[in-house]
């Protein structure tokens, strides 16, 4: 059916109010003279919300403070605001900061228990019959390792094993809570062009690039996140070995979102990339991090 445009002869009171608000705003901007509000603060707030929706940038009231070394000056304002919205819709920064304990199984290869507050971790690797008890809050790293029933006592072997355990924790926890680490020390955020459909979920998405300056296990990497414009969930995650690479070395979906103690976490990253047995318990007893 073909629709024919007809000039509007009359306008509703709501349309007239919005038109008056827009005219007032434009006149004020052109003359530089502040006008008295034509509408209540609620109407102004609603109008601003609609403007932000039209520009695909959501306003967020939930704070998401950056780490001290986050590259604010080098990051895009839009990228920061999109990431702040993402954090809000995954439970919020306050909920993540309050979550002390985490458990999960990484790709069926190992299980982890993590005390984020005290910087402790227990990593069980069944295939190697190895248990790591890691304290990464000390310099140098400290802890214990048991291999095939025997505790490692050689200082060099222990130090090397603890370093390996720390690398596993950094990698595995990043897969679990990447969305809460987008404003970490050394990170820069850039907004690429929005897309109508992301590569895997075929959803309209913001596109955010995350790069690193001299931090992490592999500081030259780049992550690209396709963030849903409606739900603010991550639709597609891409990993680039070098920040300048045009094609990703890895691409996975973010599916299987489930709430855990106030946090929305994804476990299904496609195929063999599964994070299972995810938990955010209120308590893990200290002996789990100290005793085999």
Description:
This protein has six helices and 14 strands. It is an alpha+beta fold. The chain has a domain at 93-290: outer membrane lipoprotein receptor (LolB), chain A. Strands 6-5-4-3-2-1-14 form a seven-stranded antiparallel β-sheet. The chain is globular, with a radius of gyration of 24 Å. Residues 1-59 have low confidence and may be disordered.
Task: Name the features.
292 residues; alpha+beta; outer membrane lipoprotein receptor (LolB), chain A; 7-stranded antiparallel sheet; 14 strands; disordered N terminus
Cα shape? globular
Head-to-tail CA distance between termini? 73 Å
Lateral strand order in the biggest sheet: 6-5-4-3-2-1-14
Q: Which structural class matches the secondary elements?
A: alpha+beta
Which stretches of 5+ consecutive residues score pLDDT under 50?
1-59
Helix content: 25-40%
CATH class of the domain at 93-290 reads: Mainly Beta
Shape-level CATH architecture of the domain at 93-290: Clam
Order of helices and strands: HHHHEEEEEEHEEEEEEEEH
Main beta sheet strand tally, sense and closure: 7 strands, antiparallel
């Amino acid at each position: 059916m073909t629709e024919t445009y007809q000039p509007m002869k009359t306008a509703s009171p709501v349309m007239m109010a919005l038109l008056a608000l827009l005219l007032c705003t434009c006149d004020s901007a052109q003359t530089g003279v502040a006008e008295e509000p034509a509408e209540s603060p609620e109407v102004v707030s609603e109008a601003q919300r609609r403007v932000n929706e039209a520009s695909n940038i959501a306003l967020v009231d939930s704070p998401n403070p950056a780490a001290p070394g986050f590259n604010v000056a080098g990051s895009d304002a839009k990228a920061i605001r999109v990431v702040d919205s993402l954090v809000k819709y995954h439970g919020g920064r306050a909920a993540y900061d309050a979550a002390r304990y985490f458990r999960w199984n990484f790709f069926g290869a190992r299980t982890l228990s993590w005390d984020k507050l005290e910087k402790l971790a227990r990593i069980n690797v069944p295939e190697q019959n190895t248990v790591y008890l890691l304290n990464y809050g000390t310099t140098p790293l400290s802890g214990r390792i048991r291999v095939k029933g025997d505790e490692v006592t050689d200082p060099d072997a222990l130090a090397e094993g603890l370093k390996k355990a720390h690398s596993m924790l950094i990698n595995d926890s990043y897969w679990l809570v990447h969305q809460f680490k987008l404003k970490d020390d050394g990170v820069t955020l850039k907004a690429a062009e929005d897309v109508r459909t992301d590569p895997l979920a075929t959803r309209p998405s913001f596109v955010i690039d995350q790069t690193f300056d001299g931090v992490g296990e592999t500081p030259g990497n780049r992550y690209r996140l396709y963030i849903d414009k409606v739900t603010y969930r991550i639709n597609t995650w891409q990993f680039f070995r070098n920040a300048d690479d045009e094609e990703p070395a890895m691409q996975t979906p973010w599916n299987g979102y489930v709430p855990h103690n106030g946090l929305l976490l994804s476990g299904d990253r496609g195929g063999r990339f599964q994070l299972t047995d995810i938990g955010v318990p209120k308590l893990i007893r200290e002996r789990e991090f100290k005793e085999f």
